[in-house]
Amino acid sequence: MTTISVRNVWKEYDERVVLERINLEIESRAFVALVGPSGCGKTTFLRMLLSEESPTRGEILLDGKPIAGEPTAERGVVFQRYSVFPHLTVLGNVLLALEFEKGGVLARLFGTARRKAVEEARAMLDCVGLAGNEKKYPAQLSGGMQQRLALAQTLIRKPKVLLLDEPFGALDPGIRGDIHALMRRLWNEEELTVVMVTHDLSEAFGLATRVIAFERPRLDPVDGDRYGAVIKDDIEVWPRRIAGQPSPHRDEAKTITAPGRDDPAQDQGQVRDDLALPA
Ligand SMILES: Nc1ncnc2c1ncn2[C@@H]1O[C@H](COP(=O)(O)OP(=O)(O)OP(=O)(O)O)[C@@H](O)[C@H]1O
């Protein structure tokens, strides 16, 4: 169970007010989409949830306790630009995330611990539809596959909160549909509370349980920095989605045949069918 409470949060950079009076209660396992015009502070808000930035005023609580002052494993993040390590293989990328988590000061695992970690990493790659690609390097993967790798890298650390900053913004529409299906499945299967920034309203309503719209309602013609964005709308998506209770009718489970379409191996005739979900 992971709830997020945002209490009267403001964010100012010098004289510039970016966000003001933000109050939000996010229930455990919600999937919240943040939308709003460019520059209204969505990423800034996400970075505060991650502790990459801190509020100028107000507080953010995780399960009723103030969030740690720096990023921690309980909060995982995936950005729009691919954040995987280019010099490591697919398996190496996921393994490194585990080694950072469990490997202590050396960030290395040995013997049985390493064998277990490799098993765990392979299972996670299978889960995101990348089985069979373990030895490849990120440059050999398509954009969609790299984002699935970034998801695997983040999820292997078992975060309670998953923060997504336009993670699918750079992908082609067809591939986006596939990765949306994967995202729905992960949200249903893992114990995750998700907060996602997106510019795409259909993505927001297609994935989230709740859509929060930021907007700057007041403009000072003399001092443009005087007022920040507030929560303009807070919309519960209807019919309701409940984590762990996927609805094939409403969420087109049929699109979960993902891996093939964004896999360059497809072009060489290697069609894969290992990701299809049971009906
Ligand atoms: N470290 C910083 N120092 C000063 N100003 C900043 C800093 N980070 C963000 N800002 C400003 O805060 C405002 C909000 O930026 P932010 O990136 O959060 O908006 P956004 O809604 O995510 O925009 P977009 O949709 O274009 O990504 C912008 O005007 C930006 O210039």
From TrEMBL:
Region (Disordered): 241-279
Comp. bias intervals (Basic and acidic residues): 248-279
GO terms of molecular function: acyltransferase activity; ATP binding; ATP hydrolysis activity
Pfam families found in the cross-reference section: ABC_tran
ABC transporter domain segment(s): 4-241
Alphabetized UniProt keyword annotations: Acyltransferase, ATP-binding, Nucleotide-binding, Transferase, Transport
Presence of the UniProt keyword Metal-binding in the record: no
Name listed for the protein in its UniProt record: Lauroyl acyltransferase
Organism lineage: Bacteria, Pseudomonadati, Pseudomonadota, Alphaproteobacteria, Rhodospirillales
